[in-house]
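Progress note, project year one: complex with adenosine-5'-diphosphate.
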Amino acid sequence: MTDTRHLIGLLLGTEQDWPRAFEEILGRLGPVAGPGGTRHTFDCERITIEPFDLRDRPRYELVIDRLAYWYYHPREWLKKVALMDGVYLLNSPFTFQSMEKHAAYCAMMRLGLKVPDTVLVPYKNPVDNARYAYTAARYNKSFDLDAIAERIGYPLFMKPYDGGAWRGVSRISNPGELHAAYNASGEMLMHLQKAVDHYDVFARSLSIGAETMVMRFQPDQPMHQRYAVDHSFLAPSAGTEVVTIGRLVNAFFRWELNSCETLVAGGEVYPIDYANACPDLALTSLHYYFPWAIKALVRWCIFALVTGRRPRLDLETDRFFAIADQPGASYGDKLAAYAELTDAYFESERYHDFCASSLGHLDEIVLDWVAGPGFDQLLVETVQSVYPAHEHDQFIAHLRGLTSLWAGDEGSRLRS
Ligand SMILES: Nc1ncnc2c1ncn2[C@@H]1O[C@H](COP(=O)(O)OP(=O)(O)O)[C@@H](O)[C@H]1O
Ligand SMILES: [Mg+2]
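Model obtained:
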């Protein structure tokens, strides 16, 4: 029997919760059987940032990145290891290099999805660059902001083309608010987007490789209550559509760790935000769904490594556009055809077979860990690092309640 060792690199910012959980589960998992009787073992290391020679060979075979959105040095390192060394990255650093929403809006409109009408307006203030000031003075055409807003119709949203975490997002109901928000936008480049008003439900789906968890999101709640534990908040057809849209965005851009926000109004599904290269994986916000997220991350990384899945840098957009342009095909026909392409990209069938045959014991391992003292310690330390002292008891109790609810449900599922 041949033995293969794989080293996984974690490129991290400030997070401790999911990396600790990931390291712990990987350690408990032990060797995994691969095709042809091979035996695979896994190590995991946190990557340090240091000078690198462009011809150096990296030690990692797969990297989970949570940093490159903010820091250019690791971002450029990721591009180097993707192009030169075939390192497996969950998100393509080329299509996610700026994490801007703009390209994602364009792609999904091109594929015929119901993205609300969106206009990109020029900077309110030109960026601080001597030449740009000259260009702007000479070539920026004056435009009528009110007329654009009127055409889109109120209410609308003004939001940065490359936003995240609600930075710079405002809801606009009249010309006064429009001008105030635009004047305040300064050097941020802004989209105006028609609001999906009076929506019935906000679905946030987190995709990790071939798996997607659709969660009911409550944006008006404080962070720890935003994800509601609710297993049947969408009609089956809307549920399928939401999953397909998230997977479509990901397969199109070669993203495998991303969250997608859709608003469901009167049975129609409107995607509004689906370029989140560093999606929320926090224990304090995901709570009940946190063990699933860790499992899915472990499963997908191991699947990629053991089966020798190749990272794909080419987009082959024509295959998607051919579906979009099919004469006579309805929206439903197109979604079904996209779903086939996304299944092929994520190797869905092979993935699920692999999980069943080689990772069947992972569920018990994770349940055992979540029900034990190691997880509780992580929970307590996470709360202590996130909340002020006077709130510790409240949030520890809150998270213990939700994660033991998960452990109960999971226990019943495994026994049934
Ligand atoms: N077109 C829209 N219709 C309704 N609500 C919207 C729309 N665009 C944004 N929002 C609201 O604003 C929030 C933040 O906008 P979003 O595009 O998700 O940016 P961010 O990347 O900062 O999360 C959304 O979660 C939603 O509540
Ligand atoms: Mg968002």
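The two ends are 35 Å apart (CA to CA).
Residues 261, 273 surround magnesium ion (ligand 2) (CB under 6 Å).
No further modelling is planned for this target in the current period.
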